[in-house]
Amino acid sequence: MDENTPRSTILIVDDDKYVRTVLNDAIEQPQYAITQANSAEQAIRFLKKDRFDLVLSDLKMKKIDGLELLKYIKTNFPETAVIIITAYGTVETAVKALKLGAYDYILKPIEIIKLRNLVGNILSYHQLQRENVELRRQLSHTIKPEHILGTSPHVSKIRDIIGQIAQSQVTILIEGESGTGKELVARSIHNLSQRASKPFITVNCGALPATLFESELFGHEKGSFTGAIAQRKGRFEIAHQGTLFLDEIAEISLESQVNFLRVLEDSKIRRIGGDSEFDVDVRVIAATNKNLKDKVLAGEFREDLYYRLNVINITLPPLRDRIEDIPLLAQAFIKEFSRYHNIKHKTISTEVLKKMMTYHWPGNIRELRNFIERALLLSSADLITSEVINFDELKPPGRRDTKISIPFGTTIREAEKELVLSTLKNVKGHRKNAAKILGISVRSLQYRLKEYQLENGTVLDDQDHNDS
């Protein structure tokens, strides 16, 4: 056996110690890691902690019998194979076990050779499945751009961290300005993990009203509230055995934070309107463009939830701090959009590239990506030159009015008003952009403008229609 090949895992469940020992000795092999449980309850505890390729379970046990254990396994760990073993064999029981998802059904007294062959066949199949998943994971990492492009020290460090933590199960908090690639990092972690073949589910917390957040995450039962015309699975349930990516995590309400923390701690969810809880196996990766520490200090984010999410922290640099990566990113986007729009591949002139390297890119990689697509489509020649570029978009930071003067004696309210209005002016009245720069929600910005009696003022007229 190759020492690098992971051992197949087997769980033997029987309330008779002698039977467990006989089964263990009968199937024991160097390539197997065998665990014994003296009851279905103990087996469930083991299953919650570790993954098993195969479960050998007795049918008749106290409290929870083999069929109930089978139901639990197939609901929560569908890839785990189950063999039911019993001395009380009937056709009806055999059919029921197979319908519930058992791989096979064996009667006592057990034919050892038959059992060994059956176990060997099951685990060989599981090993082949694992190898296929690993191959798909490696291929997805090799041929898809699910990694961070760049040669800067910032990017090299991030790639190293991703490689170190991808195989773990810990929660991860990704911080960084909007447009820096937080979802791309989360997908890279998922693709490199053992969960690569399972769902990667994204939730934009900032786009969900507080009243719908818990329904979206945990699901709901039919009739649990007005409009709940059918049962609906939540994102946690859909992401079972995969990864749940929660973007803009800072936007969830304090009430929802309590329930979300409980799920992280217990790995159990209850649909809204439901009577029972059930287990979920989900890795959570959260992201934010806000400073969560400041949110905690302001009482807007729970400290216990912050530390539960921030087991591993990845902070993405803004594009202005990794300008040496701009040429590589630009070429990658040209290649992407040339293929997408079915047009000839083009190159960027030295003049345009120099301008790009001096611009501060407030929208980060997302802004660069949009800029390249526009330049590629507007250029009729093979070389993208200044003739198709609006260089007013690419002014260095020093050419912008980025400072405001507040005289001594100004009240806090007046200073805040000046800051808000200057920011709005600098972004041409675009409220979403202004709110991001100020570190507040659009709703908070609207409230302040209403206080200043400027909700319908001219400062909002330029691009207000873009916020809808």
Summarize it.
With 468 residues, this protein is an alpha/beta fold.
Explain this structure:
This protein folds into four domains: 8-132, 3-Layer(aba) Sandwich (Rossmann fold), CATH 3.40.50.2300; 147-315, Rossmann fold (3-Layer(aba) Sandwich), CATH 3.40.50; 319-399, Helicase, Ruva Protein, domain 3; 412-467, Orthogonal Bundle (Arc Repressor Mutant, subunit A), CATH 1.10.10. It is an alpha/beta fold. The chain is 44% helix and 13% strand. It has helices at 17-27, 40-49, 66-76, 91-99, 112-143, 153-165, 182-191, 210-218, 235-238, 254-266, 292-297, 303-309, 326-341, 350-358, 364-378, 412-426, 431-438, 442-451, and strands at residues 8-13, 32-37, 54-58, 81-86, 104-107, 172-175, 200-204, 219-220, 232-233, 243-247, 268-269, 278-279, 283-288, 312-315, 347-348, 383-384. Mean pLDDT is 83; it is low at 139-146, 397-401 and 455-468. It is built from 18 helices and 16 strands. Helix 2 runs parallel beside helix 3 (66-76) and helix 13 (326-341) crosses helix 15. It has a five-stranded parallel β-sheet with strand order 2-1-3-4-5, with helices on both faces. The chain is elongated, with a radius of gyration of 28 Å.
Could you give the topology of this structure?
Layout (H helix, E strand, L loop, with lengths): L7 E6 L3 H11 L4 E6 L2 H10 L4 E5 L7 H11 L4 E6 L4 H9 L4 E4 L4 H32 L9 H13 L6 E4 L6 H10 L8 E5 L5 H9 E2 L11 E2 L1 H4 L4 E5 L6 H13 L1 E2 L8 E2 L3 E6 L3 H6 L5 H7 L2 E4 L10 H16 L5 E2 L1 H9 L5 H15 L4 E2 L27 H15 L4 H8 L3 H10 L17
Helix pairs in contact: 2-3, 13-15, 16-17, 17-18
